[in-house]
Design goal:
Helices cover 40% and strands 9% of the residues. By secondary structure, the protein is an alpha+beta fold. The protein folds into three domains: 3-57, Molybdopterin biosynthesis moea protein, domain 2 (Alpha-Beta Complex), CATH 3.90.105; 71-83 and 315-359, no CATH class; 92-307, Hypothetical protein af1432 (Orthogonal Bundle), CATH 1.10.3210. It has a four-stranded antiparallel beta sheet, with helices on one face. The two termini are 19 Å apart.
Length: 365
């Protein structure tokens, strides 16, 4: 079984495998996860000011194959199978344009072409959403880039656009919130690399510096006539919380703009499910449960729209139930995203986890 081990950089030895990607301030991979370290790489990490990392300790176990499906189960699966709502799916050509565009944005944040590039990316995403009338998100299917900053910005923009659509916002505002999502972290280009890449918890001084990135993002776009005030405020306030505990200005709920309330949910979720140098990724289920616990911090309308747009267990996914049986998902319920309808692979039993009180004590592990 693979394990992570926290090691001071000066204690690294050639042949060790690093267990997280090391990226520069633009999100570009300097050392890939799983890379075998040599003296040159170790020396480079020290020169970058990266004083500790996680390494791999152990081996991955092969994935278990799903148990066979009984005839009774197959009959119920075929009878109850209900396709998921249309999800955002990026074609290879769109993914390529989006990846190139977002890299240009973060490499040329002060360029006159910044607005045109972000508009182009947002229009590509909006066209993709409209092409199949997408109303749902399967975050694992986006994969626009292997580089965190770029992928995160596109993920947040896409999630926010779907949530805005769920709320019934007009097309122009859906596109604007996509632009704000693309730009919400652009200020991180002004954060020192050693802070962005630190594999452990930031100290108070480092976190104070990190908390300035929304201000830096805002300052990069606020005086440009091609970004409206809603976009600029969304970027500035995306870390504010409705109970006033957020940053950079501890705004109360009534002073936080609608775009920021949506971006906050999208940003937190995507950060939770993405591996970073300083943390392992949370499962989508755990991330959703954490979002659901943040009722004092997140706007309830934005949270509700987000939760009703997520698909955690796509139809045909094999899951393990708390009663020990493996089951196949046959139908999702947007009001109970943690509790779809599933069919036990061996028994053929139908478990309506969201609608049958007899299943109240059964959960998906």
């Amino acid at each position: 079984m693979i394990r992570r081990k926290f090691v001071r950089t000066r204690q690294l030895k050639p042949g060790m495998k690093i267990d997280h990607a090391v990226v520069d301030r633009l999100g570009r991979n300097l050392v890939a996860r799983g890379a075998v370290l040599d003296e040159y790489v170790i020396d480079s990490l020290l020169k970058l000011g990266i004083m500790s990392v996680y390494i791999q300790d152990g081996e991955y176990e092969p994935e278990e194959t799903a148990p066979p499906i009984s005839p009774a189960a197959q009959r119920n699966i075929e009878k109850l199978h209900t396709d998921d709502r249309a999800k955002v799916t990026l074609s290879d050509s769109v993914r390529k344009r989006v990846a190139e565009g977002i890299q240009f944005v973060y490499n040329n944040a002060e360029s006159k072409e910044l607005s045109d590039t972000t508009d182009s990316i947002a229009n590509d995403l909006l066209a993709t959403i409209e092409s199949n009338n997408a109303i749902a998100i399967d975050i694992s299917a986006l994969k626009t880039s292997d580089e965190y900053t770029f992928k995160h910005s596109v993920d947040v923009a896409t999630i926010a656009m779907i949530v805005a659509k769920k709320q019934g916002l007009p097309k122009a505002q859906i596109r604007e919130i996509g632009v704000a999502g693309l730009l919400h972290d652009v200020g991180k280009i002004k954060i020192p690399t050693e802070i962005l890449n630190k594999p452990g918890r930031l100290d108070d001084n480092e976190f104070a510096i990190m908390k300035q990135h929304p201000v830096y993002s805002y300052e990069l776009i606020k005086d440009r006539n091609d970004f409206g005030p809603a976009v600029s405020l969304g970027v500035l306030q995306h870390h504010e919380k409705i109970n006033g505990s957020g940053y950079p200005m501890k705004m109360p709920a009534e002073k936080i703009c609608p775009y920021a309330k949506i971006l906050s949910v999208a940003d937190i979720y995507d950060a939770l499910v993405t591996e970073r140098p300083y943390k392992a990724a949370f499962s989508q289920r755990d991330a959703v449960e954490m979002i659901m616990s943040m009722t004092a911090e997140l706007d309830m309308n934005a949270m509700k729209s987000f939760l009703e747009s997520m698909i955690l267990y796509p139809v045909d996914t094999i899951v393990e139930l708390s009663n020990g049986e493996s089951a196949k998902v046959v139908k999702n319920n947007p009001h109970y995203i943690l509790r779809p309808v599933v069919v036990g692979l061996t028994s053929g039993t139908v478990y309506d986890l969201g609608g049958d009180l007899n299943c109240a004590n059964i959960i998906i592990r």
